[in-house]
Amino acid sequence: SSWFPYNTQCNDTQISEFLLLGFSEEPELQSLIFGLFLSMYLITVFGNLLIILAISSDSHLHTPTYFFLANLSFVDICFTSTTVPKMLLNIQTHSKVITYAGCISQMYFFILCAELDDLILSAMAYDRFVAICHPLQYTIIMSPQLCGLLVLVSWIISVLNSLLQTLMVLPLSFCTGMEIPHFFCELNQVLRLACSETFLNDTVMYFATVLLGGAPLAGILYSYSKIVSSIHGISSAQGKYKAFSTCASHLSVVSLFCCTGLGVYLSSVATQSSHSSTTASVMYTVVTPMLNPFIYSLRNRDIKRALKRIIGIPAM
């Protein structure tokens, strides 16, 4: 971000559009990128929709664990839909343009969904903590009221954070012919293009990342430290395996999402290279939401049974 109030290219008129440079300038790679991202997007949407459908249609899956999973699947669909369709449209129309309003909207929904993902994953960690460490009180503690409240609070925090950070971009001055070296309007990249002072924006962005990214992560780590000590106290090997297997899927998703998300921000702080940041962004904006349905369904008999019933395959 620039520390000086204006540079030589700035004028007083507000810009009307940005240019999303995407991954490659080479024309022969565009069709490959289009095909790859269209495939990943369709798998993400249909995979997560199947999870939501399976959970809503099976009364056996109307439990806190699957309530959070259905919410995660919904957010993942929104998360990917915020960035990928616009990129596919730009490739198809041979255009790199995104309007100023479109860019601001994309930033808002991207920040909203990223934070929601993080908070719902931490709620799922708490659910696993209660299930393993306090199994007898599980149904009392994880009441429908508490589950609903956790999701509602997650939405409120995410909306307020996203609204604050997006509204703070509006007063900034930008130069003409703005090129964003990314496939979507990522807040950090947009702030680097501003001609006006962005110290406050940078401060709020990194503070929000540390607080709203760090707090859920700390909650997840605390939950798993208690889970590990509780599993360690189980005498039978079968009991230990059963307890751990209920957490394996969640732990895989948390590791994938948090590590790649953290990697994006650390790489953007440490280097000025946008390529590494863009590649890491693909991991947690496209790949993780695509893999979630597979991670949660492949090792889960209940989900597999519900999916088979929806598709029409007789359950064994």
TrEMBL record:
Name a single GO cellular component: membrane
State whether keyword Membrane applies: yes
**Where in this chain does the entry annotate a coiled-coil region?**
none
- Highest taxon of the lineage: Eukaryota
Where found, per UniProt?
Membrane
Question: By its UniProt entry, which Gene3D superfamilies does this protein fall under?
Answer: Rhodopsin 7-helix transmembrane proteins
Molecular functions per Gene Ontology? G protein-coupled receptor activity; olfactory receptor activity
For this UniProt record, the keywords arranged alphabetically read as follows: G-protein coupled receptor, Membrane, Olfaction, Receptor, Sensory transduction, Transducer, Transmembrane, Transmembrane helix
Q: Domain named G-protein coupled receptors family 1 profile: which ranges?
A: 47-296
Stretches that traverse the bilayer: 32-54, 66-85, 146-164, 204-222, 243-266, 278-298
Membrane topology, as annotated: Multi-pass membrane protein
Tell me which InterPro entries the record gives. Answer: GPCR_Rhodpsn, GPCR_Rhodpsn_7TM, Olfact_rcpt
Q: Do you know which Pfam families this protein is assigned to?
A: 7tm_4 (PF13853)
**By its UniProt entry, which CDD domains does this protein fall under?**
7tmA_OR7-like
Subcellular location, principal: membrane
Function, as annotated, reads: Putative odorant or sperm cell receptor.
What this protein is called in its record is Olfactory receptor 7A17-like
Q: Lineage in the entry?
A: Eukaryota, Metazoa, Chordata, Craniata, Vertebrata
Please name the gene that encodes this protein: LOC115505259
